[in-house]
Structure formats: C-alpha cells, structure tokens
Amino acid sequence: MLQIRIEREADTALLICMGRLIAGEECRLLWRTVVFEDASQIILDFKALGGMDAAGLGTLAALHNKLVERNRSLIFANVEPRISWLLALTRLDTVLNLRENINRETRGHSCPGNSMSMSVLPLTSFPSARQREF
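^ that's the sequence the OP posted. Answer follows.
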C-alpha cells in the first residue's frame, strides 16, 4: 500500500511517499497525485518508500515526461539504495532529477513550515548494474 503526505509552500509541493510503488492502485495514486498537483516544482521524497516494481519504474519515467511536457520540475529525493540500484540498472538515473537528501534543519529551498536544502547526488554514488555482482 502506498501512502502520500503532501506539504506545500508557494509553488513547491513535497510529496512524502510511504510504502511500496507497485502495479495497480499504488501507481495510479502516485500518477493522479502528481499530475493533478498544481505546483510548478514537485519533490517526491522516497525515504520511506520500501520497494518498487517495473510498473513503478514505468510510472516514474512517465511522470518525468509528463511534467517536462508541462514545463514543470520533478525532483526525486532521499532515494533508498535498493531503489537507486534499480534506477541505475534501468539507466533512469541518467534521466531523472535525483537529489541525495532533504535536510529540514538547514537553509536552502523552502518547504512548508520548514526550510530545507537539497544536494545533487553524484551519479558515481549509484552502483551501476555492470559493477554489481550477481
């Protein structure tokens, strides 16, 4: 089951995703939530996202394309290592806007009731599928 908590400030929406992003209602819920959000910048916080299947990966790619088409920004933050590995394996890490973390205690990009900063996650910190031993 996927749960999404939304925090808004100005033209930014922080969507905190908890649970799993898998085929079915979970992917539809994320799609509807992101597409119907009217903020020009949407941050998906995946710190509490426990897993994802192929449908989840496809949903992320489709959301990225939809928001680019609408001149809106989509940022993926706090991506857990297992999901980072899936993004690297599918090479989505080269397309999606990935951020290492959101730190609510530091100055930077603002979010509801808190200030937070984000740092760009270097691609080298993701294990590539070729480097991983099976």
